[in-house]
């Protein structure tokens, strides 16, 4: 399920995932972990005005960022950012549809403008309005972002939220008995060929959902970020060697072989081979 950059001006259509970052207690430790796991290289890092983060590269192209947690109480987590030509207007739609803004939209000059939002169940995602930083320079190939999905408990609350706010077209899929919905950007023919993300249901709501493999019943709603890899089994072995955890071992799906990991600092992510 991959949908290329589509809009005028070379950026991303509204609602298309365009960036991902990890908030970590130890950025240098994160560089070692992800550098070995994905083969990423990193820049020298930003100054205090940009939070002392670092940008990751695969084949010399930007693929993600790692940033230090400003407060130890903040979650250690990967966050996906959804593109918008007008993040301030998008923030108002989010609030009007029952979501909330955790961090109001603010400029990150000259790179763009960003904000952090939560859907009606509390799943957090980012907003990005591009300036000089358009987003992923590489995606859908080994070492880069390839997919995201939100894990929710009430599809009757969450599906209308995303479809109203972003204009997504949705298609329901039955994946081994799991209630799963995929979303395509406004104006695209809905379906796997144009899908940019999906919605799964958290444990306890469907018979043996995929989420039961790694999500405790008490886990709040959240997004899961996927990275493409050449070999999911080799990635699982590397995660273990590097001090992380295999939350869901590699398993075949109609869309490729997937696994869910937690890094050595507590950030959960997934990989897709295929």
From TrEMBL:
Organism: Streptomyces venezuelae
Domain VOC: 16-130, 144-274
UniProt entry tagged with the keyword Coiled coil: no
PROSITE patterns: VOC (PS51819)
Isomerase found in the keyword field: no
Top-level taxon: Bacteria
Taxonomic lineage of the native organism: Bacteria, Bacillati, Actinomycetota, Actinomycetes, Kitasatosporales
Alphabetized GO MF terms: hydrolase activity
Protein name: Hydrolase
Keyword list, A-Z: Hydrolase
């Amino acid at each position: 399920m991959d949908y290329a950059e589509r809009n005028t001006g070379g950026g991303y259509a509204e609602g298309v995932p365009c960036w991902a970052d990890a908030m970590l207690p130890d950025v240098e430790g994160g560089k070692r972990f992800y550098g070995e796991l994905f083969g990423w290289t990193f820049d020298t890092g930003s100054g205090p005005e940009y939070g002392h983060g670092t940008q990751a590269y695969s084949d010399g192209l930007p693929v993600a960022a790692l940033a230090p947690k400003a407060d130890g109480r903040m979650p250690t987590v990967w966050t996906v950012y959804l593109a918008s030509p007008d993040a301030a207007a998008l923030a108002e739609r989010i609030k009007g549809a029952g979501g909330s803004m955790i961090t109001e939209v603010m400029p990150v000059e000259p790179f763009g403008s960003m904000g952090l939002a939560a859907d009606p169940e509390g799943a957090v995602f980012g907003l990005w309005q591009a300036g000089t930083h358009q987003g992923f320079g590489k995606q859908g190939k080994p070492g880069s972002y390839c997919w995201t999905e939100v894990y929710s408990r009430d599809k009757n609350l969450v599906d209308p939220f995303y479809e109203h706010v972003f204009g997504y077209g949705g298609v329901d899929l039955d994946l081994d008995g799991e209630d799963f919905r995929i979303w395509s950007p406004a104006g695209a023919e809905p379906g796997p060929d144009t899908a940019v993300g999906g919605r799964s249901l958290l444990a306890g709501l469907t018979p043996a959902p995929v989420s039961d493999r790694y999500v405790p019943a008490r886990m709040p709603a959240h997004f899961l970020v996927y990275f493409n890899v050449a070999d999911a089994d080799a990635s699982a072995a590397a995660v273990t060697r590097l001090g992380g955890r295999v939350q869901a071992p590699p398993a075949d799906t109609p869309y490729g072989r997937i696994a869910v990991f937690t890094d050595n600092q507590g950030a959960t992510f997934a990989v897709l081979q295929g």
